[in-house]
Write a structure and sequence with these properties.
The protein has 93 residues and is mostly helical. The chain has one domain (3-92). 82% of the residues lie in helices and 0% in strands. The chain has three helices and no strands. The protein has helices at residues 3-11, 21-53, 59-92. Helix 2 runs antiparallel to helix 3 (59-92). The termini are close together. Keywords: Membrane, Transmembrane, Transmembrane helix. This is Membrane protein. The chain crosses the membrane at residues 26-48, 69-90.
């Protein structure tokens, strides 16, 4: 099963692309969790950007905001990797 066909099944009828119903239910829940985690990471980046711009050159605040942005971006990369890995593994089951 191809990755894009699986997501097409989420938008339409999963049986049309040969995806069992129990896998669709699992992937809907997993995708919801990944979307929430991605939204939280983006919100953290926005808040850290605001803190960075309001740091007024204070080295401690600037470093804290930069680290927060870095960690949030690393989190987004991990979330993206988890989405790909989960889709691949559930597609192979």
């Amino acid at each position: 099963m191809k990755y894009l066909e699986f997501f097409a099944g989420l938008l339409g009828s999963a049986s049309e692309v040969g995806v069992p119903d129990n896998q669709v239910d699992i992937m809907v829940i997993v995708n919801f969790i990944f979307k929430i985690a991605g939204i939280v990471a983006v919100i953290v980046i926005v808040i850290a950007g605001i803190n960075y711009s309001l740091s007024s050159g204070d080295p401690a605040k600037t470093a804290s905001a930069k680290n927060t942005i870095l960690y949030a971006v690393i989190g987004l990369v991990i979330i993206s990797s988890a989405i790909a890995i989960t889709g691949y593994i559930i597609g192979k089951v």
